[in-house]
Design a protein that fits this description.
3-stranded mixed sheet, Zincin-like, globular, 14% strand, alpha+beta
């Protein structure tokens, strides 16, 4: 994608799969390891896109869609997984 984060960290976040700080540090919840590869790749691309667009504007979503035209399906998988993990007491 032509971007480089300042740092990559793993967190205990339970409400987010990933985040990007203003200092361009990417953070990923350890629970992401329970997702399938398509969903994990989506989260990584989503956070990398924030290195260019620090918002969820149409330009941001165009970056994500340029990498994964099926990003909506991948995002939906994460929502389903989050519900399952919540039901099972993981978060």
């Amino acid at each position: 994608m032509g971007v480089t984060p300042a740092a990559v960290k793993v967190s205990n976040a339970s409400r987010r799969w990933g985040s990007c700080s203003r200092k361009k540090s990417l953070n990923f919840a350890w629970r992401l390891i329970m997702a399938d590869d398509d969903a994990i790749d989506y989260v990584v691309v989503h956070e990398l896109a924030h290195l260019t667009e620090m918002n969820h504007s149409p330009r941001f979503w165009a970056i994500v869609e340029g990498i994964f035209p099926d990003y909506r399906e991948r995002k939906s998988k994460l929502k389903d997984l989050q519900g399952k993990l919540k039901t099972e007491g993981w978060c």
